[in-house]
Design a protein that fits this description.
heterodimer; A: 291 residues; alpha/beta; TIM Barrel; two-stranded antiparallel ribbon; globular; disordered N terminus; B: 260 residues; mainly alpha; Outer Surface Protein A, domain 3; three-stranded antiparallel β-sheet; two-stranded antiparallel sheet; 48% helix; elongated
Chain lengths: 291, 260
């Protein structure tokens, strides 16, 4: 297949308050052929940074069928290294080509002095780091000419020098930089278990006006002798505890576009779609209660 | 208390090696020792790196076995940690690393197979370009042919090896017939990789065709490139050779010399 209409100007399709699914290359053909009833798709931006070839063609074809979100995993916004100009340029080119409804990045860092761990590493929640993130998010939004959403990550350690909680950090970042928030409910749960805070207290402190998207994913439990730690693996169905927290979250925030992320041990497309429909039912139940 | 830059330096050092005393003091234990908490990130970094390296060089994994690959992959990561937020680039130096590691051993052909696999990955994501018809050269005066230079297709690579690397690569594809025997000394290999629509085509080129195309792709003039082809085969029919490499879509444009 070939793309033809790279230069056609299109209006971004708005993101419906429904469930979407993470786009993985092994589902490209199935999605184009079966066109399952799912609200939207989210692609990892870096997977479509190519200069040409089949992957970007698939993305642009699917973009005609579903609203799209672009989700970056490698920009390393929180690093003190300068932002990578080539990475930024590729992201901007992709945003221009695909006209996504949403663009998101992470509250994390991944590199120093040019050496990358290619992971979503936790920041210390200090005033210094907050000011750094405000500056970086401003740079990114200015460069792209649009708002970005910033996502809370799962973490396995916290720094002793923190001056703010994560939710205070996120809220202040959104207020100072005018970014939106991508609230990952699974990540809140995983971090709450790993650090011993109350996940509902965290959610209760999130300002509904900031949240444009929610993520749900599966996690794994690693047990080392007498302790366990939850790992954000995206390799399993969403856990019951996370569904409960999701119900609590949308009861507070209302219906928000909700993504099912499953990008390791990726299941067949119908399994992923069914998980999305489960999130849709939570949102529909909310509506029924409200009516 | 470390400032952000020092904290990030201590973290990366601690995640890539085992010693991170300055960082450990900055991490809250709360039921799980800071060392164990940091070890999760260390493990994520190594596993993420190895997973991408394995996906980039599946033929080397198959030839060497997963245990060997992971062991060598860790050594490679130590020498060439990722230098990009886009993890797909981590394999860039792996062929030359294997060459240095395996020089003189019976596995030195791994380096050239890895070169083929890296070229394959580059071709997959390189830019598109419309093809070019040989008839366009009709506009050039025959006296100027020798000074013509050409542009190679962005999604084209050439790999040359003293080993039969294309046969080795083909025999290790998932859909290959089992148990094919290949002798390492059965002959050298000159491989063209080029993207066609949505797949990558690999083919052996005749030695003179490869020499001509390689020289043109380096930006040499047609006259210089022809000398390269003649060195390989003094009997080479140049117009037929040029016709073949153009018909393969390897060249996308030409530049005629400026008129004096």
């Amino acid at each position: 297949m070939r793309s033809t209409a790279h230069n056609v100007i299109r209006t971004p399709r708005p993101m419906p308050a429904r469930a979407g699914i993470g786009l993985r290359a092994q589902h490209h053909e199935d999605l184009l052929r079966d066109r399952p009833d799912i609200g939207w798709l989210e692609a990892h931006s870096e997977n479509y940074f190519a200069d040409g070839g089949a992957q970007i063609d698939y993305l642009l074809a699917l973009r005609e069928l579903y609203p799209l979100s672009l989700h970056g995993v490698g920009l390393s916004l929180g690093s003190v290294d300068p932002l990578d100009r080539d990475h930024l340029w590729r992201l901007k080119r992709l945003v221009h080509l695909a006209e996504p409804a949403l663009v998101s990045e992470h509250l994390s860092w991944g590199a120093i002095d040019g050496t990358h761990l290619n992971d979503l590493l936790p920041l210390p929640y200090t005033e210094e780091a907050l000011q750094h993130m405000v500056t970086r998010v401003g740079e990114l939004q200015d460069y792209l000419g649009r708002q970005v959403l910033i996502e809370n990550v799962s973490s396995y350690l916290q720094f002793a020098n923190a001056q703010l909680t994560e939710w205070e950090f996120l809220r202040t970042l959104a207020e100072r930089s005018d970014c939106g928030l991508l609230l990952d409910v699974n990540n809140v749960y995983v971090s709450s278990q790993n650090h011993g805070f109350d996940a509902r207290e965290y959610i209760a402190h999130i300002d509904a006006r900031h949240v444009r998207e929610i993520h749900l994913a599966g996690h794994s439990v690693n047990t080392h002798g007498d302790f366990s730690i939850l790992i954000d693996t995206h390799s399993r169905p969403v856990s019951d505890a996370v569904w409960d927290l999701y119900a609590f979250t949308i009861a507070r925030l209302g219906r928000v576009p909700t993504l099912i992320e499953w990008d390791s041990d990726v299941p067949a497309l119908p399994v992923l779609v069914a998980e999305g429909h489960r999130a849709d039912r939570f949102m529909e139940a909310l509506h029924a209660h409200a009516a | 208390m470390l400032m952000l830059r020092d904290l990030q330096r201590a973290f990366v050092q601690g995640a890539l090696s085992n010693a991170a005393p300055a960082l450990i003091a900055e991490i809250i234990g709360a039921g799980i020792a800071p060392e164990h908490r940091l070890a999760i990130y260390r493990n994520n970094a190594v596993e993420g790196f190895l997973k991408t390296l394995q996906a980039t060089f599946p033929t080397i994994v198959r030839l060497s076995g997963e245990n060997w690959f992971r062991q060598v992959g860790r050594q490679y990561m130590h020498r060439h940690p990722s230098r990009s937020g886009n993890i797909h680039y981590v394999g860039e130096h792996f062929p030359s690393f294997l060459e240095a590691q395996l020089a003189g051993s019976s596995y030195e052909y791994f380096a050239d197979v890895a070169r083929l696999e890296w070229a394959y990955q580059e071709v997959l994501v390189a830019a598109d370009h419309p093809s070019f018809e040989l008839s366009a050269l009709a506009l050039v005066a025959p006296s100027d042919y020798g000074a013509l230079t050409f542009s190679a297709h962005p999604a084209m690579r050439l790999v040359q090896s003293q080993f039969p690397v294309l046969a080795i690569w083909r025999a290790n594809q998932p859909d290959a017939a089992p148990n094919e025997r290949i002798a390492l000394d059965q002959g050298s290999s000159r491989v063209l990789l080029i993207r066609r629509e949505d797949h990558v085509e690999l083919r052996e080129l005749p030695p003179a065709d490869f020499a001509l195309l390689a020289a043109l792709a380096r930006g040499e003039s047609l006259e210089q490139a022809a000398e390269c082809a003649f060195e390989i085969d003094p009997q080479v029919a140049l117009d037929a050779t040029l016709g073949r490499i153009v018909s393969l879509g390897t060249l996308v444009d030409f530049t005629a010399p400026a008129k004096q």
